[in-house]
Design brief:
6-stranded mixed beta sheet; phosphoprotein; single chain; CheY-like_superfamily; Rossmann fold; Sig_transdc_resp-reg_receiver; two-component regulatory system; Response regulatory domain-containing protein
Length: 227
Amino acid sequence: MTRNGVFSRRQKLEKLDGFKSFDHPPPDSEELHVLAVDDSLVDRKVIERLLTISSCKVTAVDSGRRALQFLGLDEESSSVGFDGLKVNLIITDYCMPGMTGYELLKKIKESSTFREIPVVIMSSENILARIDRCLEEGAEEYIVKPVKLSDVKRLKDYITKEEGEGEKSEERVTLKRKFQDACDNSPSSSTPSSPTPSSPLSPFSSPLSSPSLLESPLRRLKTNDGD
């Protein structure tokens, strides 16, 4: 469950349900967009730097409320103007004033629009009860600070893998639907077959059981000679 201060929901599921993780996904074809949330300017700059080195597009905000505004989930304020910009990953600090990372996680998982976005919790405190609560609420990972470049690269690889698998699954569903529609709309090629006339003498029937032979002149002649 833990790997150098990293607590993963995937590893927990792997132990419970036989879930298999993939460490070597195919390379991504487009830049991933990460929303980073941390009230500490220093920590925010660090995570932004690591994500940039990993070729990720980064949007950094200083609070959970600002993150909700960015996503358009803040009921008190309108979106900050990034409507329609896809977010592939949200990484947030746990201890923040006003709204904790755990509360932000719950808000995101309650949203029908953003619940599928992976959320990673960062914290300088290694508290087991807090870790379990975040993972059970749906956090993808719980990383104990300082966050390292290897952590960011691993997360990027995982997100890329999941994005690729999701696209393949959608393609399979689309192809299956098109195939089914083609089968439903195609004209029937089967035509009713005309009944095959029965043979006068079936290979499985006895010659004596054929009415034509029983009533033939030869049969009657033999019968009369016997009399």
